[in-house]
Structures are given as structure tokens and as C-alpha cells.
Amino acid sequence: MAIGSAEHHQGREYAGHKSRGLYVKVAASSLRKGNVIDMDGKLYVALSVQNIHPGKGTPVTQVDMRRISDGVKVSERWRTTESVERAIVDERPYTFLYSDGEGFHFMNPENYDQVVASVDVVGDAAAYLQDGMTVSLMTHDDIPLAVELPARVTLEIADTEPAVKGQTSSGSYKPAIMTNGQRVMVPPYLTVGTRIVVLTEDGTYYERAKD
């Protein structure tokens, strides 16, 4: 992932290697959600970043983070102009293989290397992962940090109320349970066994599958 142009002007002091990762010093105010930060020799992924400008006093950047090694969440506050060490992460397509007690297994289709993402990293995306699905995986030193799903997935309705005879309008929706266990609101004429397309961002119904 390229170093953003903003970082060339906002407190960038050096770029260097530690282990196999690339690091760069940036102003705290330039941090964004998803950035990986090296603090006291440990790596943290930013969950939220807020720049606070009080009427009086020094502007600060408040960052809520998750420690990558053990998932512990912490909060840190820096002066907005203070230099923070940020790790440059790698983001590329990976193929989801399977999940087990160890975690979620993904494969790089270019070199067949495999990585394992923890339950904490995958989060709510786990419900929509399907064997062979291509996802965008963010890693640092081959450690998965975040998973981005395709915008839409196709699932089957496992349980819902029977369709009402003659009701074809999609004006009112009814609850349904999909084969992945997730609840979704669907048009009243759809029945058990119907394949539907769902938006992974919020889990809402998009359309009836065309396959």
C-alpha cells in the first residue's frame, strides 16, 4: 500500500524496516481508522480516531485501538502534531478456505501461502464467509488485521412465513432466517428455499438471486 501524499507533508520523518514490516513516522492528526500503530514495541490497529480541538489548550488526537497480539483494547491520546510510528500494511485478495478451532484460514492465490485470522479480527464478517470466497485481507508481517467482504453474497432462505396467496407487492416485508443463521427482512412472496442476494455491509435484502 502506497504511502499517502498527506503523510509526506504531515510529520513524516523517516521510513524504515523493522522485522519484515515497513514503518513511517506521521503526525498523530493524520491517523485514520484501520491504521496500524507501533507503540512501546507492540502493534495496535486503530478502531476509531478523533481529533479534538478545545477552545483553550492543546489540540489532541484520541485513538481507540486493539492490540494485535492479544486483542486487548486501549485508548491513547497524543498532541495532534506529535509523531507516531505507523506500520504500512499490505492489502490484497485472499481466498477463504475454512474455519476451525485455530481461526479462519485464508490463502493468497498468487503464491498459495496461507494465513489464519482470529475470531476477533473477522468479527461479524464470519456469518457471510463462504468456501472459496475472495475477500480483501489486510495484513502486516503476514498477520491478518482486517477482512473486507464482497459487497453482496447469495444465501438461501431457511425459514420464513408462508407466502400469502396473491400477495406480490414488496411494499411490506416479513422476517426470514437465512442458511447462515442471520435474520433478514424479505418481500412477502419469497418462500423457504429461495436464494436471495444480501448486502454484507448491513445484512439487508438486495434482490432475488438470478441463478
TrEMBL record:
UniProt keyword Zinc-finger, yes or no: no
Coiled coil (UniProt feature): none
Entry keyword Protein biosynthesis: yes
Major location category of this protein: cytoplasm
Family: Belongs to the elongation factor P family.
HAMAP family: EF_P (MF_00141)
Function: Involved in peptide bond synthesis. Stimulates efficient translation and peptide-bond synthesis on native or reconstituted 70S ribosomes in vitro. Probably functions indirectly by altering the affinity of the ribosome for aminoacyl-tRNA, thus increasing their reactivity as acceptors for peptidyl transferase.
Name of the molecule in the record: Elongation factor P
